[in-house]
Write a structure and sequence with these properties.
With about 350 residues, the chain is α+β, with helices and mostly antiparallel strands. The protein has two domains: about 1-70, no CATH class; about 75-340, Alpha-Beta Complex (paralog of FGE (formylglycine-generating enzyme)). About 20% of the residues lie in helices and about 10% in strands. It contains seven helices and nine strands; from the N terminus they run ααααββββαααβββββ. Strands 7-6-5-8 form a four-stranded mixed β-sheet. The protein starts with a helix and ends in a 13-residue tail after the last strand. The relative contact order is 0.16.
């Protein structure tokens, strides 16, 4: 029934505006879709763009607002496929069935990871329940976590082995595809990469302990709000309408990983408060296609640098500020692997 109705909707759109007929294509943040005036509630409900019936210009996706939802959730969750790479479509189908499909077991290389010791951790906050976990103290076992966010160079080695889907290209973000910038990934792309590298996603608790240290500090560097640009957030170079003109960090979008040495956690993790939000494994059940990202990014406000910041991602929230750092279990010694994907 729903499929038939959707087909009819597409036929109506095609008859009125052919360029809008391909509604299942991925909406790239920052690229404005063509305007259509269409007084049909059911059509607008499926497309998800407003303003048609009023005759006014619709509130289209722009650099000033999170992108609207794409129709095809598999693209937003698993990543795009490329027609010139025939293997990408078959790989995505396999990953939808089993995210571990075809993975060759390998030991993680911990040479660029930091071992976080077992012990208590202060988690969450009390004054901003919508932006953090509930305030609590947790006992967390030892684990390893990447010092840096996964770079494009590292991720593209997984793509070269045809084990990861290609990352989405964001043409409105010059420089973001450079090898030393963080890879911009969907949740399942991040999960798949970590598994391919012999690692896994960190849990929320692990990520927050690594970011805040044993003392549960507010910021990775301590409890004092920063007075100078110590992290890549939406500052003077940022194109968003909430950009802070007093915060000039030198980057409108992503920065090379490790470029901000003061954005450093007590354990030595870099880029914890800024650059890209990082996908983690949720510690509580979530609705389907909802995922958790931690930390701040080039897109976030200066006020969102606190180490307990979290975002529950769902359809319609932007993906061009999401990356990952992987984790590994900390039981026993883990030696450097000769097969580390560098």
């Amino acid at each position: 029934m729903a499929g038939t109705l959707f087909t009819k909707v597409r036929e109506i759109i095609s008859a009125i505006s052919p360029e809008r007929s391909s509604v299942t294509k991925y909406v790239v943040p920052g690229i404005r879709p063509p305007r259509v005036t269409l007084c049909a509630f059911v059509v607008l409900s499926f497309i998800g763009w407003s303003g048609g019936c009023s005759g006014k210009t619709s509130n289209r996706p722009s650099l000033d607002a999170p992108p609207k939802a794409a129709i095809d959730m598999t693209i937003q969750v698993y990543g795009p496929v490329e027609s010139q790479r025939d293997w990408t479509n078959s790989l995505r189908e396999k990953l939808i069935s089993d995210i571990r499909s075809g993975i060759t077991e390998r030991k993680p290389d911990t040479s660029d990871m930091i071992k976080i010791p077992a012990g208590k951790a202060i988690i969450g906050c009390e004054d901003s329940p919508d932006a953090c976990l509930p305030f609590q103290t947790r006992n967390i076992g030892a684990f390893y976590i990447d010092r840096d966010e996964v770079t494009n160079a590292e991720y593209n080695r997984c793509v070269a082995e045809k084990q990861c889907l290609p990352p989405t290209n964001f043409p409105h973000m010059p420089g973001s595809s450079e090898p030393d910038h963080p890879a911009l990934l969907t949740f399942k792309q991040a999960e798949r990469y970590c598994l391919w590298a012999g690692k896994r996603l960190p849990t929320e608790y692990e990520w927050e302990k690594a970011a805040r240290g044993k003392d549960g500090r507010l910021y990775p560097w301590g409890n004092d709000a920063p007075l100078k640009p110590v992290a890549n957030v939406c500052g003077a170079e940022c194109t968003m309408n909430w950009a802070d003109p007093t915060w000039s960090d030198g980057y409108a979008y992503t920065a090379p990983v490790g470029r901000f040495p003061e954005d450093r956690s007590p354990y030595g993790l870099l880029d914890v408060a800024g650059n890209v939000k990082e996908w983690v494994a949720s510690v509580a059940p979530l609705p389907q296609y909802h995922f958790i990202a931690r930390g701040g990014s080039w897109y976030t406000k200066r006020e969102q640098l606190r180490a307990w910041e979290r975002q529950e991602w769902r359809q319609g929230i932007r993906l061009d500020d999401k990356g990952v750092r992987c984790a590994a279990d900390g039981r026993g010694p883990i030696k450097k692997s000769a097969t580390r994907p560098r």
